[in-house]
Design a protein that fits this description.
TIM Barrel, alpha/beta
Length: 222
């Protein structure tokens, strides 16, 4: 598996745990607000053996490993990496955009937590991704998680191009989900004319709308 970056310890990426975060290159989406765009074509990669040695040494200090990106399900060797990390005693969290539900299904026996992005309401993903894309696999993957046993959260970055009705439509589509996180949008570059993020009141209204459909709603980034 290719590794393009490593955060050696994080208190925010794995709920309730101290974790290392492994970033992989490559993605099958192109979201204009993405802060990890450099991972599309990473020019330099970390040595896998060194990463594994680091994780082995930190077993007494870390609880989990988060695999993020980019899109991890595109990576050959992902299952082997997860199993190697699990053999060290770590809990594993996977970040995914849900475009490869079959790959996610195959990983479920080895995963402890999944964070899945819901970019936009059903059929509206073109408002986020800059090329034509069928979002049916995303909702197939969402249904897989809702009906499964692995702990998970859905999350939406509340972009300025989305409104409260959009957040409600997303939450309604995953009605009964365990957890839905609304993330504050951050401008990708303060030097550009990127739109301004929603205010706290709008985000509060979106959270209240989503709470009609899912068990637990959280807000991050404000």
């Amino acid at each position: 598996m290719q590794i393009a970056g490593l955060v050696k310890n994080s208190f925010v990426d794995y709920p309730g745990l101290i974790a290392a975060v492994v970033f992989v290159p490559g993605c099958n989406m192109d979201c204009w607000y993405c802060h990890n765009r450099a991972l599309w074509k990473a020019e330099s990669l970390l040595d896998m053996a060194e990463v594994m040695r680091f994780l082995e040494k930190r077993r007494a200090f870390l609880d989990g490993v988060v695999i993020s990106g980019g899109e991890p399900t595109l990576q050959a060797g992902l299952v082997q990496f997860i199993r190697g990390v699990k053999a060290m005693g770590y809990r594993v969290k996977l970040d995914t955009n849900g475009l490869k539900p079959d790959a996610v299904a195959g990983l479920l026996p080895d995963i402890d937590y999944i964070a899945m992005d819901l970019k936009a309401p059903p059929g509206e993903i073109h408002r986020v991704v800059s090329f034509g894309l069928d979002d049916a696999p995303v909702w197939q993957c969402a249904d897989l998680l809702i009906s499964g046993e692995v702990d998970y959260e859905f999350r939406t970055t509340f972009m300025p191009t989305l409104d409260v009705a959009d957040i409600e439509a997303i939450a309604q589509r995953v009605k009964g989900a365990r957890r839905y996180v609304i993330q504050q949008y951050r401008k990708p570059d303060s030097r550009t004319l990127s739109p301004e993020p929603h205010g706290k009141e709008t985000i509060k209204n979106a959270a209240e709308a989503a709470a009609k459909y899912v068990r637990d709603v959280a807000v991050r980034g404000i």
